[in-house]
From TrEMBL:
<dbReference type="InterPro" id="IPR016450">
    <property type="entry name" value="UCP005522"/>
</dbReference>
<protein>
    <submittedName>
        <fullName>Circularly permuted type 2 ATP-grasp protein</fullName>
    </submittedName>
</protein>
<dbReference type="InterPro" id="IPR051680">
    <property type="entry name" value="ATP-dep_Glu-Cys_Ligase-2"/>
</dbReference>
<dbReference type="Pfam" id="PF14403">
    <property type="entry name" value="CP_ATPgrasp_2"/>
</dbReference>
<feature type="domain" description="Circularly permuted ATP-grasp type 2">
    <location>
        <begin position="73"/>
        <end position="449"/>
    </location>
</feature>
<dbReference type="InterPro" id="IPR025841">
    <property type="entry name" value="CP_ATPgrasp_2"/>
</dbReference>
Length: 473
Protein backbone atom coordinates (compact mmCIF):
# COMPACT_ATOMS: atom_id res chain seq x y z
CA UNK A 1 0.00 0.00 0.00
CA UNK A 2 2.89 2.36 0.70
CA UNK A 3 4.24 2.03 -2.87
CA UNK A 4 1.21 3.60 -4.55
CA UNK A 5 1.01 7.43 -4.76
CA UNK A 6 -1.48 8.93 -2.32
CA UNK A 7 -5.02 9.42 -3.59
CA UNK A 8 -5.72 13.12 -4.16
CA UNK A 9 -9.30 13.80 -3.09
CA UNK A 10 -9.54 16.99 -5.20
CA UNK A 11 -7.71 16.11 -8.42
CA UNK A 12 -7.92 13.20 -10.84
CA UNK A 13 -4.66 11.70 -12.14
CA UNK A 14 -4.99 13.83 -15.32
CA UNK A 15 -5.20 17.04 -13.27
CA UNK A 16 -8.94 17.59 -13.70
CA UNK A 17 -10.98 18.48 -10.63
CA UNK A 18 -13.14 15.72 -9.13
CA UNK A 19 -16.87 16.46 -9.14
CA UNK A 20 -17.35 17.10 -5.37
CA UNK A 21 -14.60 19.74 -5.40
CA UNK A 22 -15.63 21.75 -8.48
CA UNK A 23 -17.42 24.56 -6.64
CA UNK A 24 -14.52 24.83 -4.16
CA UNK A 25 -11.95 24.88 -6.99
CA UNK A 26 -13.77 27.73 -8.72
CA UNK A 27 -14.09 29.62 -5.44
CA UNK A 28 -10.36 29.26 -4.73
CA UNK A 29 -9.51 30.62 -8.20
CA UNK A 30 -11.65 33.68 -7.51
CA UNK A 31 -9.93 34.54 -4.23
CA UNK A 32 -7.65 37.60 -4.43
CA UNK A 33 -4.03 37.41 -3.29
CA UNK A 34 -3.66 37.16 0.50
CA UNK A 35 -7.40 36.40 0.97
CA UNK A 36 -6.69 32.94 2.39
CA UNK A 37 -3.92 34.36 4.55
CA UNK A 38 -6.38 36.87 6.04
CA UNK A 39 -8.98 34.11 6.52
CA UNK A 40 -6.39 32.01 8.33
CA UNK A 41 -5.55 34.91 10.66
CA UNK A 42 -9.26 35.55 11.29
CA UNK A 43 -9.81 31.86 12.06
CA UNK A 44 -7.02 31.88 14.64
CA UNK A 45 -8.50 35.02 16.23
CA UNK A 46 -11.94 33.35 16.42
CA UNK A 47 -10.50 30.22 18.03
CA UNK A 48 -8.37 32.22 20.47
CA UNK A 49 -11.36 34.34 21.51
CA UNK A 50 -13.47 31.23 22.09
CA UNK A 51 -10.66 29.58 24.04
CA UNK A 52 -10.47 26.55 21.76
CA UNK A 53 -7.25 25.07 23.03
CA UNK A 54 -5.66 21.72 23.72
CA UNK A 55 -2.88 20.82 26.13
CA UNK A 56 0.54 19.61 25.04
CA UNK A 57 2.37 18.41 28.11
CA UNK A 58 6.13 18.88 28.08
CA UNK A 59 6.00 21.58 25.40
CA UNK A 60 8.50 24.43 25.70
CA UNK A 61 5.85 26.87 24.42
CA UNK A 62 3.52 26.28 27.37
CA UNK A 63 0.83 23.66 27.65
CA UNK A 64 -2.17 25.49 26.14
CA UNK A 65 -2.24 25.93 22.35
CA UNK A 66 -4.82 27.04 19.83
CA UNK A 67 -5.49 24.02 17.65
CA UNK A 68 -4.27 24.66 14.08
CA UNK A 69 -7.21 25.06 11.68
CA UNK A 70 -7.14 24.95 7.90
CA UNK A 71 -9.59 27.20 6.05
CA UNK A 72 -9.96 24.92 3.00
CA UNK A 73 -12.76 22.44 3.77
CA UNK A 74 -12.60 18.75 2.98
CA UNK A 75 -15.49 17.64 0.77
CA UNK A 76 -17.19 14.23 0.70
CA UNK A 77 -19.76 13.32 -1.95
CA UNK A 78 -23.20 12.11 -0.85
CA UNK A 79 -22.71 8.59 -2.25
CA UNK A 80 -19.29 8.28 -0.60
CA UNK A 81 -20.82 9.25 2.75
CA UNK A 82 -23.69 6.77 2.34
CA UNK A 83 -21.24 3.88 2.06
CA UNK A 84 -19.18 5.14 4.99
CA UNK A 85 -22.15 5.74 7.31
CA UNK A 86 -23.64 2.32 6.49
CA UNK A 87 -20.31 0.69 7.37
CA UNK A 88 -19.98 2.76 10.56
CA UNK A 89 -23.47 1.80 11.74
CA UNK A 90 -22.75 -1.89 11.09
CA UNK A 91 -19.51 -1.63 13.05
CA UNK A 92 -20.89 0.10 16.15
CA UNK A 93 -23.86 -2.27 16.39
CA UNK A 94 -21.50 -5.27 16.25
CA UNK A 95 -19.16 -3.77 18.86
CA UNK A 96 -22.04 -3.16 21.28
CA UNK A 97 -23.26 -6.74 20.73
CA UNK A 98 -19.70 -7.92 21.42
CA UNK A 99 -19.57 -5.95 24.69
CA UNK A 100 -22.90 -7.37 25.84
CA UNK A 101 -21.69 -10.89 25.08
CA UNK A 102 -18.28 -10.44 26.73
CA UNK A 103 -19.95 -9.30 29.95
CA UNK A 104 -22.61 -12.04 29.85
CA UNK A 105 -22.44 -15.47 28.18
CA UNK A 106 -19.12 -14.98 26.31
CA UNK A 107 -20.36 -17.00 23.33
CA UNK A 108 -17.68 -15.63 21.02
CA UNK A 109 -14.97 -16.97 23.36
CA UNK A 110 -16.69 -20.36 23.72
CA UNK A 111 -16.88 -20.57 19.92
CA UNK A 112 -13.11 -19.99 19.74
CA UNK A 113 -13.50 -16.99 17.43
CA UNK A 114 -11.37 -14.78 19.71
CA UNK A 115 -8.67 -16.09 22.08
CA UNK A 116 -9.99 -16.09 25.65
CA UNK A 117 -6.67 -14.81 27.00
CA UNK A 118 -6.89 -11.72 24.78
CA UNK A 119 -10.09 -10.66 26.55
CA UNK A 120 -10.01 -12.02 30.10
CA UNK A 121 -6.36 -11.09 30.78
CA UNK A 122 -6.65 -7.71 29.08
CA UNK A 123 -6.25 -4.67 31.35
CA UNK A 124 -9.22 -3.02 29.59
CA UNK A 125 -11.56 -5.87 30.59
CA UNK A 126 -13.67 -4.92 33.62
CA UNK A 127 -14.77 -8.02 35.62
CA UNK A 128 -17.00 -5.80 37.79
CA UNK A 129 -19.28 -5.35 34.73
CA UNK A 130 -20.11 -9.08 34.48
CA UNK A 131 -23.86 -9.68 34.40
CA UNK A 132 -24.75 -5.98 34.54
CA UNK A 133 -27.71 -4.95 32.34
CA UNK A 134 -27.09 -1.45 30.96
CA UNK A 135 -30.02 0.69 29.81
CA UNK A 136 -31.22 -0.48 26.36
CA UNK A 137 -28.32 -2.96 26.37
CA UNK A 138 -25.99 -0.19 25.18
CA UNK A 139 -22.42 0.02 26.50
CA UNK A 140 -20.81 2.50 24.10
CA UNK A 141 -23.21 5.40 23.51
CA UNK A 142 -20.64 7.78 22.02
CA UNK A 143 -18.14 6.38 19.53
CA UNK A 144 -15.52 7.93 17.26
CA UNK A 145 -14.44 5.73 14.34
CA UNK A 146 -11.14 6.74 12.71
CA UNK A 147 -11.28 6.24 8.94
CA UNK A 148 -8.60 6.68 6.30
CA UNK A 149 -9.03 6.79 2.55
CA UNK A 150 -6.55 5.33 0.08
CA UNK A 151 -8.51 5.38 -3.19
CA UNK A 152 -11.68 6.58 -4.96
CA UNK A 153 -13.78 3.91 -3.23
CA UNK A 154 -11.30 2.54 -0.67
CA UNK A 155 -11.91 3.37 2.97
CA UNK A 156 -10.27 1.61 5.91
CA UNK A 157 -10.99 1.81 9.63
CA UNK A 158 -7.80 2.72 11.43
CA UNK A 159 -9.19 2.33 14.94
CA UNK A 160 -12.35 2.49 17.04
CA UNK A 161 -12.69 4.88 20.00
CA UNK A 162 -15.25 3.64 22.54
CA UNK A 163 -13.93 4.92 25.85
CA UNK A 164 -14.16 8.72 25.83
CA UNK A 165 -13.71 9.81 22.18
CA UNK A 166 -12.72 13.47 21.97
CA UNK A 167 -12.63 16.15 19.29
CA UNK A 168 -16.34 16.69 18.59
CA UNK A 169 -16.15 20.28 19.86
CA UNK A 170 -13.54 21.00 17.16
CA UNK A 171 -15.93 19.60 14.54
CA UNK A 172 -18.65 22.00 15.71
CA UNK A 173 -16.39 25.03 16.07
CA UNK A 174 -14.70 24.37 12.71
CA UNK A 175 -18.13 24.55 11.07
CA UNK A 176 -19.09 27.73 12.91
CA UNK A 177 -15.79 29.36 11.92
CA UNK A 178 -16.24 28.43 8.25
CA UNK A 179 -19.79 29.83 8.19
CA UNK A 180 -18.36 33.14 9.41
CA UNK A 181 -15.31 33.10 7.13
CA UNK A 182 -16.75 31.79 3.85
CA UNK A 183 -20.56 32.26 3.72
CA UNK A 184 -20.43 32.69 -0.07
CA UNK A 185 -18.87 29.24 -0.47
CA UNK A 186 -21.69 27.67 1.58
CA UNK A 187 -24.22 29.22 -0.82
CA UNK A 188 -22.59 27.29 -3.70
CA UNK A 189 -22.56 23.92 -1.93
CA UNK A 190 -25.42 21.99 -0.35
CA UNK A 191 -23.67 20.97 2.88
CA UNK A 192 -25.23 18.58 5.42
CA UNK A 193 -25.51 20.24 8.86
CA UNK A 194 -23.52 19.19 11.93
CA UNK A 195 -24.80 21.79 14.39
CA UNK A 196 -27.58 19.54 15.69
CA UNK A 197 -24.99 17.25 17.37
CA UNK A 198 -25.50 18.71 20.91
CA UNK A 199 -29.29 18.27 20.59
CA UNK A 200 -28.81 14.69 19.35
CA UNK A 201 -26.35 14.04 22.18
CA UNK A 202 -28.93 15.19 24.72
CA UNK A 203 -31.66 13.05 23.12
CA UNK A 204 -29.37 10.03 23.21
CA UNK A 205 -28.45 10.57 26.86
CA UNK A 206 -32.09 11.09 27.86
CA UNK A 207 -33.06 7.87 26.05
CA UNK A 208 -30.76 5.77 28.27
CA UNK A 209 -31.81 7.31 31.58
CA UNK A 210 -32.83 4.82 34.30
CA UNK A 211 -36.48 3.71 34.25
CA UNK A 212 -37.06 5.28 37.66
CA UNK A 213 -35.89 8.74 36.56
CA UNK A 214 -38.15 11.72 35.86
CA UNK A 215 -39.64 12.51 32.45
CA UNK A 216 -36.93 15.15 32.07
CA UNK A 217 -33.74 13.33 33.17
CA UNK A 218 -31.03 15.35 34.90
CA UNK A 219 -27.78 15.04 32.90
CA UNK A 220 -24.30 16.03 34.04
CA UNK A 221 -20.89 15.99 32.34
CA UNK A 222 -18.25 14.66 34.74
CA UNK A 223 -14.84 16.17 34.06
CA UNK A 224 -11.44 15.61 35.76
CA UNK A 225 -11.13 19.42 35.89
CA UNK A 226 -9.51 22.39 34.24
CA UNK A 227 -6.09 20.76 33.90
CA UNK A 228 -7.38 18.02 31.60
CA UNK A 229 -6.31 18.40 27.95
CA UNK A 230 -9.94 18.20 26.74
CA UNK A 231 -11.48 20.47 29.40
CA UNK A 232 -12.61 22.98 26.76
CA UNK A 233 -14.65 20.24 25.13
CA UNK A 234 -16.19 19.08 28.42
CA UNK A 235 -17.42 22.60 29.26
CA UNK A 236 -18.44 23.29 25.65
CA UNK A 237 -20.63 20.17 25.35
CA UNK A 238 -22.22 20.70 28.76
CA UNK A 239 -23.10 24.26 27.78
CA UNK A 240 -24.36 23.31 24.31
CA UNK A 241 -26.76 20.61 25.50
CA UNK A 242 -27.91 22.40 28.64
CA UNK A 243 -26.27 19.99 31.08
CA UNK A 244 -24.29 20.77 34.24
CA UNK A 245 -20.51 20.47 34.21
CA UNK A 246 -19.38 18.70 37.41
CA UNK A 247 -16.23 17.49 39.07
CA UNK A 248 -16.19 14.50 41.43
CA UNK A 249 -16.66 16.49 44.68
CA UNK A 250 -19.82 18.10 43.22
CA UNK A 251 -21.58 14.72 43.35
CA UNK A 252 -22.37 12.29 46.15
CA UNK A 253 -24.21 8.99 46.60
CA UNK A 254 -26.96 8.55 49.17
CA UNK A 255 -29.30 5.57 49.44
CA UNK A 256 -27.91 4.08 46.24
CA UNK A 257 -28.74 7.21 44.21
CA UNK A 258 -26.49 9.97 42.88
CA UNK A 259 -27.04 13.60 43.81
CA UNK A 260 -25.48 16.89 42.78
CA UNK A 261 -24.71 19.56 45.37
CA UNK A 262 -26.43 22.84 44.50
CA UNK A 263 -27.07 26.14 46.30
CA UNK A 264 -30.71 25.12 46.74
CA UNK A 265 -29.97 21.62 48.03
CA UNK A 266 -29.24 18.18 46.55
CA UNK A 267 -30.54 17.36 43.03
CA UNK A 268 -30.94 13.80 41.79
CA UNK A 269 -28.69 12.90 38.82
CA UNK A 270 -29.93 10.41 36.22
CA UNK A 271 -27.25 10.30 33.52
CA UNK A 272 -23.52 10.97 33.82
CA UNK A 273 -21.58 11.63 30.62
CA UNK A 274 -18.23 10.90 32.16
CA UNK A 275 -14.93 12.08 30.71
CA UNK A 276 -12.94 10.26 33.39
CA UNK A 277 -11.19 6.94 32.80
CA UNK A 278 -12.66 3.76 34.33
CA UNK A 279 -9.96 3.51 36.96
CA UNK A 280 -10.84 6.86 38.52
CA UNK A 281 -14.67 6.98 38.51
CA UNK A 282 -15.17 5.44 41.95
CA UNK A 283 -12.44 5.02 44.60
CA UNK A 284 -14.52 2.37 46.41
CA UNK A 285 -14.79 0.12 43.32
CA UNK A 286 -11.57 0.83 41.41
CA UNK A 287 -8.52 2.95 42.26
CA UNK A 288 -8.77 3.80 46.00
CA UNK A 289 -6.46 6.80 45.61
CA UNK A 290 -8.66 8.52 43.00
CA UNK A 291 -9.72 12.05 43.92
CA UNK A 292 -11.56 12.53 40.60
CA UNK A 293 -14.48 10.15 41.00
CA UNK A 294 -17.49 9.70 43.27
CA UNK A 295 -17.42 7.16 46.15
CA UNK A 296 -20.26 4.66 45.71
CA UNK A 297 -20.98 5.66 42.09
CA UNK A 298 -20.44 2.18 40.69
CA UNK A 299 -22.86 0.58 43.17
CA UNK A 300 -25.50 3.17 42.18
CA UNK A 301 -24.83 2.27 38.55
CA UNK A 302 -25.10 -1.48 39.20
CA UNK A 303 -28.40 -0.88 41.00
CA UNK A 304 -29.77 0.83 37.89
CA UNK A 305 -30.20 4.20 39.59
CA UNK A 306 -27.87 6.14 37.29
CA UNK A 307 -26.52 5.60 33.76
CA UNK A 308 -22.81 6.01 33.01
CA UNK A 309 -21.96 7.07 29.47
CA UNK A 310 -19.91 5.35 28.16
CA UNK A 311 -20.20 2.28 30.38
CA UNK A 312 -17.10 1.12 32.30
CA UNK A 313 -15.29 -1.69 30.50
CA UNK A 314 -16.03 -0.48 26.95
CA UNK A 315 -12.29 -0.12 26.39
CA UNK A 316 -12.02 -3.85 25.69
CA UNK A 317 -13.78 -3.21 22.35
CA UNK A 318 -11.32 -0.54 21.18
CA UNK A 319 -8.20 -2.37 22.33
CA UNK A 320 -5.81 -2.40 19.37
CA UNK A 321 -5.29 -6.15 19.64
CA UNK A 322 -9.08 -6.74 19.63
CA UNK A 323 -9.31 -4.39 16.61
CA UNK A 324 -7.79 -7.11 14.44
CA UNK A 325 -10.85 -9.30 15.16
CA UNK A 326 -13.56 -6.72 14.37
CA UNK A 327 -14.41 -8.20 10.92
CA UNK A 328 -14.83 -11.52 12.74
CA UNK A 329 -16.97 -9.81 15.40
CA UNK A 330 -19.25 -8.30 12.73
CA UNK A 331 -19.72 -11.69 11.08
CA UNK A 332 -20.33 -13.48 14.40
CA UNK A 333 -23.03 -11.14 15.72
CA UNK A 334 -24.63 -9.75 12.55
CA UNK A 335 -24.01 -12.56 10.06
CA UNK A 336 -22.65 -10.00 7.57
CA UNK A 337 -19.33 -9.22 5.93
CA UNK A 338 -17.70 -5.97 7.09
CA UNK A 339 -18.57 -3.05 4.80
CA UNK A 340 -15.54 -1.07 5.98
CA UNK A 341 -12.33 -3.07 6.05
CA UNK A 342 -9.64 -3.00 8.72
CA UNK A 343 -6.12 -1.98 7.81
CA UNK A 344 -4.18 -5.27 7.31
CA UNK A 345 -2.49 -6.01 10.64
CA UNK A 346 0.38 -8.32 11.57
CA UNK A 347 0.22 -10.41 14.72
CA UNK A 348 3.57 -10.21 16.53
CA UNK A 349 2.76 -13.15 18.81
CA UNK A 350 2.96 -15.40 15.73
CA UNK A 351 6.66 -16.26 15.30
CA UNK A 352 6.61 -16.28 11.51
CA UNK A 353 4.80 -12.93 11.28
CA UNK A 354 7.01 -11.44 14.00
CA UNK A 355 10.20 -12.44 12.16
CA UNK A 356 8.87 -10.86 8.97
CA UNK A 357 7.96 -7.66 10.87
CA UNK A 358 11.41 -7.42 12.48
CA UNK A 359 13.07 -7.80 9.08
CA UNK A 360 10.86 -5.17 7.41
CA UNK A 361 10.28 -2.74 10.27
CA UNK A 362 11.62 0.25 8.29
CA UNK A 363 8.56 0.06 6.01
CA UNK A 364 5.92 -0.52 8.70
CA UNK A 365 3.88 1.32 11.33
CA UNK A 366 4.21 -0.05 14.88
CA UNK A 367 1.56 0.83 17.50
CA UNK A 368 1.48 0.13 21.20
CA UNK A 369 -1.73 -1.77 22.01
CA UNK A 370 -2.80 0.73 24.68
CA UNK A 371 -1.17 3.82 23.14
CA UNK A 372 -3.19 6.83 21.96
CA UNK A 373 -2.80 10.37 20.68
CA UNK A 374 0.09 9.42 18.40
CA UNK A 375 2.24 8.32 21.35
CA UNK A 376 3.81 4.86 21.67
CA UNK A 377 4.00 4.43 17.90
CA UNK A 378 6.60 4.47 15.16
CA UNK A 379 6.15 5.25 11.45
CA UNK A 380 8.99 3.24 9.88
CA UNK A 381 9.72 5.25 6.71
CA UNK A 382 10.03 8.54 8.64
CA UNK A 383 11.95 7.14 11.63
CA UNK A 384 15.69 6.72 12.22
CA UNK A 385 17.61 3.44 12.26
CA UNK A 386 18.06 3.91 16.01
CA UNK A 387 14.27 4.11 16.38
CA UNK A 388 13.86 0.97 14.22
CA UNK A 389 16.27 -0.91 16.50
CA UNK A 390 14.54 0.39 19.63
CA UNK A 391 11.15 -0.88 18.44
CA UNK A 392 12.65 -4.22 17.33
CA UNK A 393 13.78 -4.72 20.93
CA UNK A 394 10.38 -3.68 22.27
CA UNK A 395 8.55 -6.14 20.00
CA UNK A 396 10.94 -8.98 20.89
CA UNK A 397 10.46 -8.27 24.61
CA UNK A 398 6.65 -7.84 24.49
CA UNK A 399 5.22 -9.12 21.17
CA UNK A 400 1.69 -9.02 22.60
CA UNK A 401 2.02 -5.30 23.35
CA UNK A 402 2.26 -4.16 19.71
CA UNK A 403 0.33 -4.34 16.47
CA UNK A 404 2.05 -3.68 13.16
CA UNK A 405 0.52 -2.39 9.93
CA UNK A 406 1.72 -1.41 6.46
CA UNK A 407 2.34 2.29 5.86
CA UNK A 408 -0.84 3.45 4.19
CA UNK A 409 -0.73 6.07 1.46
CA UNK A 410 -3.36 8.23 3.21
CA UNK A 411 -5.39 10.41 0.88
CA UNK A 412 -4.52 14.10 0.59
CA UNK A 413 -6.63 17.25 0.52
CA UNK A 414 -5.68 20.77 -0.55
CA UNK A 415 -4.45 22.62 2.53
CA UNK A 416 -3.36 26.22 3.06
CA UNK A 417 0.23 26.22 4.33
CA UNK A 418 3.03 28.81 4.46
CA UNK A 419 4.01 28.15 0.84
CA UNK A 420 0.42 28.39 -0.44
CA UNK A 421 -2.05 25.61 -1.24
CA UNK A 422 -0.51 22.13 -1.08
CA UNK A 423 -1.73 18.54 -0.58
CA UNK A 424 -1.57 17.22 2.98
CA UNK A 425 -2.53 13.81 4.39
CA UNK A 426 -5.85 13.54 6.25
CA UNK A 427 -7.97 11.11 8.24
CA UNK A 428 -11.57 11.35 9.44
CA UNK A 429 -13.27 10.75 12.78
CA UNK A 430 -17.04 10.50 12.36
CA UNK A 431 -19.04 10.59 15.61
CA UNK A 432 -21.82 8.13 16.40
CA UNK A 433 -24.48 8.36 19.11
CA UNK A 434 -26.31 5.19 20.21
CA UNK A 435 -29.35 5.07 22.49
CA UNK A 436 -32.93 4.74 21.31
CA UNK A 437 -31.48 4.87 17.78
CA UNK A 438 -28.17 5.25 15.96
CA UNK A 439 -27.37 8.86 15.08
CA UNK A 440 -24.33 9.58 12.89
CA UNK A 441 -23.25 13.19 12.29
CA UNK A 442 -22.56 13.76 8.57
CA UNK A 443 -18.81 14.03 8.16
CA UNK A 444 -17.06 14.40 11.47
CA UNK A 445 -13.64 15.76 12.34
CA UNK A 446 -11.01 15.79 9.60
CA UNK A 447 -7.52 15.85 11.05
CA UNK A 448 -4.70 16.98 8.79
CA UNK A 449 -0.95 16.40 9.00
CA UNK A 450 0.36 19.93 8.42
CA UNK A 451 3.99 18.89 7.98
CA UNK A 452 4.87 17.94 4.40
CA UNK A 453 4.97 14.16 3.98
CA UNK A 454 3.84 13.50 7.56
CA UNK A 455 1.22 10.81 8.19
CA UNK A 456 0.65 11.70 11.87
CA UNK A 457 -2.49 13.85 12.14
CA UNK A 458 -2.83 14.13 15.95
CA UNK A 459 -2.91 17.71 17.27
CA UNK A 460 -0.46 16.66 19.99
CA UNK A 461 1.97 15.69 17.21
CA UNK A 462 1.69 18.83 15.05
CA UNK A 463 -1.55 18.10 13.21
CA UNK A 464 -4.53 20.39 12.67
CA UNK A 465 -8.20 20.18 11.74
CA UNK A 466 -10.47 20.99 8.78
CA UNK A 467 -14.20 21.48 8.41
CA UNK A 468 -15.69 18.39 6.74
CA UNK A 469 -18.45 19.01 4.20
CA UNK A 470 -20.71 16.12 3.27
CA UNK A 471 -22.65 17.20 0.19
CA UNK A 472 -26.35 16.45 0.06
CA UNK A 473 -27.98 15.09 -3.10
Amino acid sequence: MADQPPFDEMYEADGSVREPYRALSQWLEEQPDKALNLMQADAEAIFRKLGITFAVYGSDEGTEKVIPFDVIPRIIAAQEWRKMSKGIEQRVKALNAFLYDIYHRQEILKAGRIPEKLILQNEAFCPEMMGLEPARGVYAHIIGVDIVRVGPDEFYVLEDNLRTPSGVSYMLEDREAMMILAPDLFHRCKVAPVENYPENLRRTLESVAPENSSSSPNIVVLTPGIYNSAYFEHSFLADQMGATLCEGPDLFVDGGKVYMRTTTGPERVDVIYRRIDDEYIDPLAFNPSSMLGVPGLFDAYRAGNVTLVNAPGTGIADDKAVYTYVPEIIEFYLGEKAILQNVPTYNCTDEEERNWVLANIADLVVKEVHGSGGYGMMVGPTSSKAMHNEFRKKIEARPDNYIVQPTLALSTCPTYVNSGIAPRHVDLRPYVLIGDEVRITPGGLTRVALKKGSLVVNSSQGGGTKDTWVLED
